[in-house]
Design goal:
10-stranded mixed sheet, two-stranded parallel sheet, 14 strands
């Protein structure tokens, strides 16, 4: 089986070029073909010698894989299904006026086991490679029009940090897509060892899945609370500067009667006091065999207003793509024909 060039750095491409009998500078040329011109085959790299391309193509391919299917929501959101690691994974393209944001997956399934998430309920199947993740950016119809990316799809990005880090390097490096890190947000439940690495090694925005400020209640829904307590996550975040262009937000899915009370809002204010941040309130999207229901909109608005009066910017996130199971917590990697 051929190896994939997608996701390789110029330094790695240099070594691949030398092994194929090409000059060292061919590594930079290959990076330009891969990320600048987005070619789909080695044969298209026409400033490499024919003999070099033939030698390269014996062991290597660019590595694109077309989506298995695409579903479009009534609101314009598109959900793309890909096959990776022998499983199906999903990416969601969200249009919003002049922006097109890709919600990208980093794992097939997830280890974290959050009870209200369809991905978490299916268990963990494997880490995606950098090529698998980048393919979600390059193989969709809107590849050349994407303005932003959120690592909020299937899986926990910081549980696959080395491959995600490689993807962020491709997205933000001058030899890659040359995106500003401010166009990218990574969402995590708070994998502490790799959260510190992300904060040290990247300048992308951070979103933390919080959902309940009380440790014992959060543990009911999120088993990771035991390994990486929320208070420890927030204390680590406090060590970094979010007063400039880099932002930190906290994701808060609102359930009727479980985490939508004044008591919860006040505890959230205490937990985040003095931290420059935003709280995104997310309407829960009903999933099978789960007893909780969404909080009514007036309750969400009251919760938002209480946070705002306490000095924390809070917004209610608009739900997108719910009719095609593309909204928050609904990604399951299911082929509609299966």
């Amino acid at each position: 089986m051929k190896q994939r060039l997608l996701g390789k750095t110029p330094e790695e491409l240099r070594e691949i070029a030398l092994a194929a009998g090409l000059p060292a500078f061919a590594g930079k040329q290959m990076a330009q073909w891969l990320y600048g011109k987005r070619v789909r085959s080695v044969e298209e790299m026409t400033n490499l010698s024919k003999a070099g391309r033939e030698a390269l193509a014996r062991d290597w391919e660019v590595g694109y894989a077309a989506p298995v299917e695409c579903q479009e929501s009534s609101d314009g959101t598109k959900k793309y299904l890909f096959e990776a690691q022998g499983f199906f994974i999903e990416a969601v393209m969200i249009p919003d006026q002049d922006r097109k944001t890709l919600c990208v997956s980093s794992q097939a399934g997830c280890k974290m086991g959050c009870k209200f998430c369809m991905t978490g309920r299916q268990g963990f199947h494997g880490n995606l490679s950098a090529a698998d993740i980048l393919n979600q950016f390059f193989a969709i119809e809107e590849a050349g029009e994407l303005s932003n990316a959120v690592f909020m799809g299937m899986g926990e990005p910081l549980d696959n940090w080395e491959e995600v880090k490689r993807v962020l390097e491709v997205l933000t490096s001058p030899w890659g897509l040359a995106w500003s890190p401010k166009r990218i947000t990574l969402s995590t439940i708070g994998v502490l060892p790799n959260l510190r690495k992300f904060l040290d090694e990247s300048h992308c925005h951070l979103a933390v899945s919080l959902h309940n400020p009380f440790p014992e209640e959060r543990l009911e829904m999120m088993p990771v609370q035991k390994a990486w307590p929320l208070e420890d996550v927030v204390n680590l975040i406090r060590q970094y500067d979010f007063t400039g262009q880099r932002r930190v937000s906290f994701e808060y899915t609102v359930f009727a009667g479980w985490n939508d009370t004044k008591r919860h809002a006040d505890a959230l204010l205490r937990l985040l006091q003095g931290l420059e941040c935003r709280v995104n309130l997310i309407r829960f999207h009903q999933i099978p065999d789960f007893p909780f229901v969404p909080a009514p909109l007036p309750q969400m608005e009251a919760f938002r207003d209480r946070l705002s009066r306490g000095g924390i910017t809070a917004t209610i996130r608009a739900s997108r793509g719910e009719d095609i199971f593309a909204a928050c917590g609904l990604l399951a990697g299911k082929h509609k024909g299966l």
